[in-house]
Amino acid sequence: MRFRPWPKPEPDRDTSRKRAAFRRKQRLEREALPLFADVIAAGQHSVDEEMVRRLIWWDEREREQRTLRAARWREARARLFALPADLRRSVRTLWRGCPYPADPTYLLDLLHQVAVGRVDPHRPPWIFDGKLAARTTPNPDKFDQAFRQIGHRKIGGGPKTTPADEFLFCGNLGTGILFLRTRVRLNNPHESYYTSSSHRLRDSHVGRAGHWIDLEVRGDCSDTELELIRRLAQAADSRPVVARRVETLKPTHGETVHMPAERRTGS
């Protein structure tokens, strides 16, 4: 059993702040009913009497609390030893290692939870005995099966241009978590974006010059996985997709990326 001695509290001390607070309380009582202020003052006792009353009350309350705590310990022990021997040993072992405070009220609650079947003494809820496994998609058929969107923001734009969409995805193909960022790149950097819903891998579209999707991959990614990501992204979008590894996803403000013509097709 886990027992903890009753902490010895500090007695109610007589301080100047407590005296001032009591005088203020009495004054507010008189000011609340100014027509009966004399009657109220006659029924009020002095500050010295109040300090003595508090000291006596403190000792009486401490004795009551100690008596109540001892009675609860006796009740908890009686209920514990009323259990079968095997269950009693299991509950005692459970009580020694549980996160509850060493208080009889918590022990009584634990015994009640065991009695009604909410707590299994052999498999307590605060002990996790399962095995964690990462959620992976080793052989995905579609981009949405392997990666889910976790971020979206607008980048670029100006007084006469519409900002482009930037999307952030995450997923695990089996070797570790991967973060993907897709951004629209213009074949002609002097062109501007406009939005359209005719493409599947999210929205931003441009006018005459055309554009391509720059897909950045961060994480441990083999060449085979990189090609798989590019192929899945290409199948989800009608625009050319270029997949490349990056060490970190850096901010894109003021960034300019120019890819060779042969890379823009994803080859």
Characterise the protein shown here:
By secondary structure, the protein is of the alpha+beta class. It folds into two domains: 16-116, no CATH class; 143-245, no CATH class. The protein is 38% helix and 17% strand. It has seven helices and seven strands, in the order H-H-H-H-H-H-E-E-E-E-E-E-H-E. The chain has helices at residues 16-32, 37-43, 47-81, 85-97, 104-116, 143-146, 223-235, and strands at 147-155, 164-172, 177-186, 193-194, 205-206, 211-218, 241-245. A five-stranded mixed sheet has the order 1-2-3-6-7. A two-stranded antiparallel ribbon has the order 4-5. Strand 1 and strand 2 (164-172) form a beta hairpin. Helix 1 (16-32) runs antiparallel to helix 2 and helix 3 packs parallel to helix 5. The longest helix has 35 residues, at 47-81. The two termini are 71 Å apart.
Overview in brief:
The protein has 267 residues and is α+β, with helices and mostly antiparallel strands. It is 38% helix and 17% strand.
Ends distance: 71 Å
Q: Strand arrangement, largest sheet?
A: 1-2-3-6-7
What is the helix content? Answer: 25-40%
Which shape, going by the Cα principal axes? elongated
- How many domain regions? 2
Mean pLDDT: 81
Helix/strand/pairing category: alpha+beta
Count, helices = 7
How many E-type strands? 7
Main β sheet profile = 5 strands, mixed
Order of helices and strands: HHHHHHEEEEEEHE
